Amino acid sequence: FYGRPWSMDQRKVLFQMQRWGLNTYLYGPKDDLKHRLLWREVYSPEEEQLRTLIIEAQSRGLRFVYALSPGQDIVFSSSCDMTLLKRKLRQVSDLGCQAFAILFDDIDHSMCQADSEAFASFAHAQVTVTNEMYRFLGEPPVFLFCPTYCGSLCSPSVSKSPYLQTVGEDLLPNITVIWTSKVISRKLSVDCLAEVESVLQRPPLIWDNLHANDYDSRRLFLGPFKGREPQLRSHLRGLLLNPNCEFEANYIPLHTLGSWHRTGKEEMKDEECEYCPDRALSAALHDWMEELNQPLQAGVCSGKGLLSESQVRLLVGLHYLPHEHGPSAQKLLQDLTWLKSNCHVVGVNSKKAPPQKVDEWRGRASRFLSLCEDIAQLHCSVVGGANRAVLYDLYPYVWDLRNTALVAKAFICWLGRVLSDSSTLGSWRNCFHCGKTTGADLLGVESEPWVFKGGVSGEVQMLLPIGSSSELFTHPPPLFPTSRLYNIRPYHSKDKVELYRMVRQLHLRTQGGQESSSAHPDVIGDCLGPCLALCPEYSFILEDELGVCGCVLGILDVRSFAKRCQASWIPAMRDKYPEDQGEYPDSLLYHFPSQLRLDALPELVDISVSRTLLTALLTALKANSQGVFCEVQPTDRQRLEFLTKLGFLEILRGEARSREGVVLGRLL
């Protein structure tokens, strides 16, 4: 138990542990202020529901371990602090707890002056207090000590560390030492723990952070327990798995941990004697499927459908393990990387490219787009599923990846089209140079997973030309999830009628539902027409099941566009609109040569797709432009706030020229 309290889920996890053959539950949530920050304070009668949890665990044959973290501000030499520590542990003991842990991880290893005078070393201070608490509680059969993990305390090596040597020599032999080889270990073997066992003078208890996700708000780990040799069990006093903060995300991790723990026991079938992560994952998926499609209350189903096994496998593959992606995520990243690296084969100047290479690009693009569509459908299925508890825990992650996949899908669609048109080719090679390598390339075997943030979603993001702009991708999900299926794609000429209808609808709403008497009846078409006719390749459409619900129109080079309008469009408009709107100054266009216009229906349940739509255009513009601007009416506070959050800054006011709007710009 770690991180955010799980409230009613606590009993459920105890049931699962009993069912899967696990035997120990450690209570140590940092959000329980009296576990860490206010460790000196005893629990009030209203907080003594801890007793219920202890009784529940014991009734299921589980060992309940109460952990306390006093290390942040304890004065080891203070008799007052020792009295308060004993009072706290005695209270929990009186609640029925029979196993305890004193944790000194994640703290500063310096001592106050009083402690420096009383103890020979930091290790000596910790060991003295731990031994005293152990004796005070009557030497319980399970008493855990977690040392301070710090590079300087483990130098020059684990075996030669004075800190660990003191712990091994002075800590009472029946006290178990918690150990983490690395914060998040890719693999654990008997050989790698031999040095630890020697210096601690006892087999360690492994604190395994394999599925912990509290270091990255965009990552979730649904993959199997993996990379730990089954032979470890005979060289350890135990293994504690620190799980995802989200309770519902831990079904597979705990299920497969149980399979690993049972490996080799006599009652198991011969073919199961050797632990296989893939086989354990399949068994866990089979059991999880039933729960995923089970409503919280029997006979009550607020969802729209069932999650299929292929969707659940996709979900797990996209949120696998810290050092390893599942098959679906690997395909997603490999195809996106390859499509970018080989986009020249479908360019207008690619006549020398082998036909099979062109076919391969088109084929892999089709596969990539199909996978992005599967991700969007997965999002809808999770939101519309029967088990709402699963929805609330997994929604932020599937929503985040859905949005990133929408941008990537739109980018590949745009790339395949624009490279085939010599008039819009531009410096398309920038598409390759703007994106960065994937996290899999950045992360070596010895690197910690947080070197690269965001998991699969973050890696897809960084492969996009605009990927370094985190403000476009990292936002909290909407409060009200929607199962509506959205798509973002490049504009087609066939969209013109529906697009005009949508923008006209928006225009009428701004006029109170009636046409302005002074407005020309063709104002909508004449407003959108130049962009769609002269620069359609930088326009994107947002659509749902009902049709077009948003659009973003982009102009790559406003100067060039203005000249083309002057020659082919403006002469016909002068009779309709005699008022001159004025030109944008050269000082603006020098830094922000591109322009955009964003429109979306206010009925959008998930307003985040408007941000995703805009990001799709910025991704395309980034390949050939250094900056973009847009014009907003000063009374449109909502849009001004929306754009400001996405990195746009006000650079020009209407009074500087004949236009009324506020100009906001953003460098790319």
Automatic annotation (TrEMBL):
Its EC number is 3.2.1.169. Residues 1-265 form the GH84 domain. Signal peptide: none annotated. Keywords: Glycosidase, Hydrolase. It comes from Stegastes partitus (bicolor damselfish). It catalyses: 3-O-(N-acetyl-beta-D-glucosaminyl)-L-seryl-[protein] + H2O = N-acetyl-D-glucosamine + L-seryl-[protein]; 3-O-(N-acetyl-beta-D-glucosaminyl)-L-threonyl-[protein] + H2O = L-threonyl-[protein] + N-acetyl-D-glucosamine. Pfam families: NAGidase. This is protein O-GlcNAcase. It is an enzyme of class 3 (hydrolase). InterPro entries: GH, Glycosyl_Hydrolase_84, O-GlcNAcase_cat. PROSITE patterns: GH84 (PS52009). One of its GO terms (biological process) is glycoprotein metabolic process. GO terms for molecular function: [protein]-3-O-(N-acetyl-D-glucosaminyl)-L-serine/L-threonine O-N-acetyl-alpha-D-glucosaminase activity; beta-N-acetylglucosaminidase activity. PANTHER family: O-GLCNACASE, PROTEIN O-GLCNACASE-LIKE.
